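Reminder: ligand-aware prediction takes two inputs, not one.
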Amino acid sequence: IGDFWHIDEMIPDFYDENGNSLFLIHTDQGEKLFDDIKESLAPNFKGGEKSFASRVYSDGKNKMMKGRLEPGASIGLHRHEGNCEMIYVLEGSGKMLYDGGEERLSAGDFHYCPEGHEHSFINDGDSDLVFIAVVPAQ
Ligand code: MN
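Here is what comes back for the chain with manganese (II) ion:
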């Protein structure tokens, strides 16, 4: 994890004047370290269906998690106040409701929910939806 310098030139949509963090898992060993964090289950997370499974790392302020939604599971609609959220999909596909609209997300896609905006993530596919989510405090 580190400061994401020059994000204003590379991904201008995600630039934040308070700074952007970059969290990279680039080795099998790094992925194993993340997978070694115990997966916890949150039933009806934010009012969603079934359970949201996640492995969370937190420094007490910012959160990084590897999340999993089984088919039919969802994270209910919620608004980000005091933080934002960045999601990178690793496996599967799903529907993201965002500020009254919706977008399709599948492996390799990135979603950004800025502070003050709301979203809901729904696995309407037939395999697990696995993603990395980063929630930096604002
Ligand atoms: Mn969220």
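The longest strand covers residues 51-58. The chain has two helices and twelve strands. We will return to this case in the review session.
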